[in-house]
Design brief:
- Helix content is about 15%, strand content about 40%.
- By secondary structure, the chain is mainly beta.
- Strands 15, 16, 17, 18, 19, 20, 21 and 22 form an 8-stranded antiparallel β-sheet that branches.
- The longest helix has 10 residues, at about 120-130.
- The chain starts with 9 loop residues before the first strand and ends with a strand.
Length: about 300
Amino acid sequence: MMNYYKFTPLPKNLIWGTEIWQISGVPGSETMCEGQNINDIVKKEKARLVGEANYKRFGDEFPLLIKFIDAHQDLSIQVHPTDEVAHRQGKPRGKTEMWYLLDSKPGAALYNGLKEQLTPEQYEEMVNKKTICDALAKYEVKDGDCFFIPAGRIHAILSGCYLVEIQQTSDVTYRIYDYDRRDKDGKPRQLHTKEAAESIDYTVYADYQTHYTPRKNESVVLVECPHFTTAVYDLTEPMTIDYSELDSFVALIGLKGEGTLNIDGDEVVLHAGETILIPAYIKEVEINSTIKFLETYVR
């Protein structure tokens, strides 16, 4: 059993930009470490890697997908189903996710949630008229902004955004509108009108951004949900993180700087743009350098 895992990132070059899958258990797109894919490692190590409760809940499939996303063009207006809806549609699970913004281009923005109440009939009419963007809440973004996107919420990353995405292990995306964009063969990209309509949560909120107070040298929790908990750390001095009460793996995602980690006697450097997976049996991690990073786990 290794004290930590650094997986080989899996690049995905898409019509709108690039995704770098840091850790993935999505079937057919599993990330690799020293000749083993992540789900094979889970199957071998079981609860020692992911935790007792997580192994009972998820079995041999790693439960999170972690990406860096660099949007050169607008992504489609889209929605993801909940687990319940996904099961009805014949999918293994739904997709709840979060975004943490990095150094994006000036004026970069995104859509997240409805800004006005719609009925399903009004939604269908706006999709047909290609005016659905008029009903969406739009946010200009900057480094450090955070957004939670529960399954069922309409959203889109727009051109110029650079961010970390943490989500359930699922690649289920339903396109609602794609700006009449064509694929590499010159054909209109597929829309998923029926599946999307079955998945949308029409609840309207006053604000969809996750607001938090940045602090140095301590954990600042950003998102807590049944699918993952994520915190941000901004360290200017050494720190020891105690995981003795946690029954889960931990993924550390480098954002800025680099940190030297001591993990049960093993030293490893976490650079910006990298992710390290720490098994559940590790109960303490020492960090000895200035670094900003995300910490995420499932419990």
